[in-house]
Design goal:
464 residues, mainly alpha, Fumarase C, Chain B, domain 1, Ribonucleotide Reductase Protein R1, domain 1, 3 domains, two-stranded antiparallel sheet, 60% helix, binds arginine, Fumarase/histidase_N, Argininosuccinate_lyase, lyase, amino-acid biosynthesis, EC 4.3.2.1
Length: 464
């Protein structure tokens, strides 16, 4: 089939070679952005008297027909037309005749594709920001229900100190908040128009780049035409932000998987987020959490892939850059779905209060309380640590816990210990008394919940 750029060519390539070079199998996803960019471009060409109004009108009408078909999934893309840009241009010429060929005046596919990518990613990132916010809402609501649920806190996956279960959930809230902030920051770089940079050097036509930027809703334009068509930083940033975000989800997924295990039994997942086994009838597998943990690999892969593709590329456009798309599309979809699934999974999971309570009652995570108690009585913390360590060893050897020791046992270890120690050793007290700023004390957690709510997007005002 004759190519739109055929003039200089004598021979033609074979279909399988065309197929290797084509991006239409995946960049058809940019169809609406491509048409939007073209509509803005043609409007500007007319305004700047580069095209006649009559030609401009015809082109606009043709583009609208194609847009309508695109919205109804009625377009048929041809591999021989390589990419979304040439496919649309060909459709336009078929629709309105040779005047359709005037659309590409003062433009190149290089600034065109960059424009499409900016438009596409802007929308995706805005949706992802909303999904993060939605997930944060779920986290804070769940946390509010569990301020007084005392749970074991871990270091090295060994029980460390009791904490409020809400405190644990809120830790993820703040990770998501930083992810939201990073995505918002990314938007500043995405929100910049490369249109009008031409192939690399700008154009001889008296175009107005600010006009197209405004029509397309971009708040700024690239200052350098070479940079405009060569820059894919905004995608690398997105992939990098996404990698951090999914790393957070993966850590949370890992905890959900542990918590749902028979060994922990801290939570029960709703049936909608679990699956059974084809052979073992008793199983309820936390598939969604596992899958999100697994998808972390592909998102990191896309980041490394993109960085590697760009490394060593001379300015300006190189065909290598066509490789920027699939990873970006896939990442946007993966992040969006993972967030939405995670929100549903956390919202519907049941927290097993009694198992949390017995986990903190029967362990040594109150040992720090005893050491702190002695330190308050004037014993240097290092010595207090030693005294308590010996008591713990004694308990482990005799198969009891600290609260099972008699007051005599305590006083033998240190005469400063009095009856009030039993109260101090209760897990509730351990949590309640950790009232330092940002700590797990119930009062601090309540303050944190208020702060968290204030960090959510104000749906009415549309801002933070
Ligand atoms: N399909 C190409 C891409 O995605 C569009 C830009 C092509 N430009 C060119 N000069 N071949 O990167």
């Amino acid at each position: 089939m004759k190519k739109l750029w055929n003039g200089r060519f004598k021979g033609s390539s074979e279909e399988w070679i065309d197929e290797f070079g084509a991006s239409i199998p995946f960049d058809h996803q940019l169809v609406l952005e491509d048409i939007e960019g073209s509509l803005a471009h043609v409007e500007m060409l007319v305004q700047c008297s580069i095209l006649s109004e009559q030609d401009g009108d015809l082109i606009q009408q043709g583009l609208q027909v194609i847009k309508h078909k695109a919205e109804n999934n009625e377009l048929k893309f041809e591999l021989s037309h390589e990419d979304i840009h040439l496919n649309i241009e060909k459709m336009l010429i078929d629709e309105i005749g040779p005047v359709g060929g005037k659309l590409h005046t003062g433009r190149s596919r290089n600034d065109q594709v960059a424009t499409d990518m900016h438009l596409y990613l802007k929308k995706q990132v805005q949706e992802i920001i909303n999904s993060i916010d939605q997930f944060q809402r779920v986290l804070v609501n769940k946390a509010a229900q569990h301020v007084h649920s005392v749970a074991p806190g871990y270091t090295h996956l060994q029980r460390a100190q009791p904490i409020s279960f809400a405190h644990h959930l809120l830790a993820y809230f703040w990770m998501m908040d930083r992810d939201k902030e990073r995505m918002n920051d990314n938007l500043k770089r995405i929100d910049c128009s490369p249109l009008g940079a031409g192939a690399l050097a700008g154009t001889t036509f008296p175009i107005d780049r600010f006009m197209t930027a405004k029509t397309l809703g971009f708040s700024s334009v690239y200052e350098n035409s070479l940079d405009a068509v060569s820059d894919r930083d905004f995608i690398v940033e997105f992939l990098s932000n996404s990698s951090i975000l999914i790393m957070h989800l993966s850590r949370f997924a890992e905890e959900i998987i542990l918590w749902a295990s028979q060994e922990f039994q801290f939570i029960e997942l709703d049936d909608a987020y679990a699956t059974g086994s084809s052979i073992m009838p008793q199983k309820k597998n936390p598939d969604m959490a596992e899958l999100i943990r697994g998808k972390t690999g592909r998102v990191y892969g896309h980041l490394i892939g993109m960085l590697t593709t760009l490394k060593g590329l001379p300015l300006a456009y190189n065909k290598d850059m066509q490789e920027d798309k699939e990873g970006m599309f896939d990442t946007a979809q993966t992040i969006q779905r993972s967030l939405d699934i995670f929100a549903g999974m956390v919202e519907t999971m049941k927290v097993n209060e009694s198992n949390l309570a017995s986990a903190v009652a029967k362990d040594f995570s109150n040992a720090t309380e005893l050491a702190d108690y002695l330190a308050v009585k004037g014993i240097p913390f290092r010595d207090a640590h030693e005294i308590v360590g010996k008591l713990v060893l004694h308990c482990v050897e005799t198969n009891i816990f600290l609260v099972d020791l008699s007051i005599e046992d305590f006083q033998n270890a240190c005469p400063l210990i009095a009856e009030d120690i039993y109260e101090v050793l209760s897990p509730e007290q351990a949590v309640k008394r950790r009232n330092s700023y940002g700590g797990t004390g119930f009062a601090q957690v309540e303050i944190q919940i208020e702060k968290a709510r204030a960090a959510l997007i104000d749906k009415e005002a549309g801002t933070k």
